[in-house]
Amino acid sequence: MVQKLMPQPWKIHFHLAERKEKTIFLKLANQIIQEILSGRLSTGTRLPGSRTLADELNINRKTVQSVYEDLEAQGWLILKPRQGTFVSEHLPDLNLKPETTQNTSVQDCSLPAQEVIKNDGIPDTRLIPYELFSRAYRHALIQVTRYQTMGYGDPQGSIELRQALLNMLSMQRFIQTTIAQICVVRGSQMGIFLAARVLAKYQAQRDVIVVEQWSYPPAVETFLSNHYQIVRVRLDQHGLDTDHLVEILNTHAVAAVYTTPHHQYPTTVSMAMDRRLKLLELSKTFDFYIIEDDYDHEFHYDSRPIPPLISLPFADKVIHIGSLSKVFAPSLRVGYVVANLDIIQAMKQDILLIDKQGNAITELAIAELMQQGEIKRHTRKMRKIYQTRRDFAVLTFQQTFQDKVEIVTPAGGMALWVKFNLPYQPHYAEILSQLQIDSEYEFGSAFQPAANDFYIRFGFAALREMEMIHIIQSLHQAFLDA
Predict the structure, then answer these.
(1) What is the helix (H) or strand (E) element at residue 388, kind and residue range?
(2) Mind listing the domains of the chain with CATH numbers?
(3) How far is CA 128 from CA 37, 330, 390, in A?
(4) CA distance 413 to 201
(5) Residues 154-177: pLDDT tens digits?
(6) Strand 239-240 to strand 235-236: parallel, antiparallel, or no bridges (unpaired)?
(7) Is the overall model pTM greater than 0.90, yes or no?
């Protein structure tokens, strides 16, 4: 039986005209937080519907919806289906004294200065739905205790999580596979490491791993630690250059090609479909494996995501590696590998040597969230927020640096590839490093692919608008004064 709501005795009004923030989003979000902290909006108070508030303030309804979603994710508000949006009964603990609440705003709700966000395209951990996580972990702990399954688990991962992953991969990514072909790992880096070890057995006569011209450094280090030679293939605005790859294949004994085709690391380029098909065809012709690192597939904004390599024809030798870390937080350490049975069985044997226990409680909790649709709902919410942040970051760079930067707005992902049209100075990297020390946020990595070129991979997803403004203005001042 649905509880009947009592009518609000008074209509709630908001006034934004005198606020100094630069966007309507920040004006409204900060106003609501301030009203909560001052006590005007007490816990349990029902806020106006998005359409009603948008009409009253003469603003876009989507802006109101985005503010409500953002504040719900932070813990200020709670959405009750078929009832409305309410002030949460469990507000964020900001350790604020009463005399400081009048100046509190969205940009103030950040982590303490001594905690540095490693931001090369990471999620905003401040938006994690902690109550959902807490509930799922409680259920998982009860389950493993009740059924006395606290011992060693399946090194391939719990059957519940693999079933949930199978459903997601089939419905969302066009991947036709089986539970037996899925292996749960502690993040994508472990998947890359296991792939390197397994290929040493299956490609024993081949000692070359091909990586893209600029590539993910931890992956490269992993291959080097497994005694592979690294050969780099050219990269352009369409992704990995398959014509250049043919030249490499004709002169080297290639065991595998490592690629990040969906949102290339670090350039954010998506590999064109004709090159994807060509790469798969070459894999069959030259008998090499493809390690597909699909690290942030969920966050594609401008069109439908391109199907992964493993979902296309001739994908028998694709080792597909994915992660849930980008959806929630890197510390979650839940990833997965999809490959043929021989590869998965070999990985399973290696896992027994390094991770026999697994993480049954976390796997059960994540499986529950996936099965209940909570991860899908959270991802959809984050996709909207991150797309708004992407657009704001591009606009702020362009307004601040004008013709001194070049940015091709990425179709997806959590970072920008920013080229600076400035005479390169050797100490630019040092300036960037010092800025990240002085700031409470690490916001990117520097790249110098050619003598006079200078790029930054700028992570925007974990930064709010005022944080981005501060960082980009600091970069402008530092580089132009250098």
Answers:
(1) helix 374-401
(2) 24-105 (1.10.10.10), 133-375 (3.40.640.10), 377-481 (3.90.1150.10)
(3) 21, 12, 19
(4) 34
(5) 889 999 999 999 999 998 888 999
(6) antiparallel
(7) no
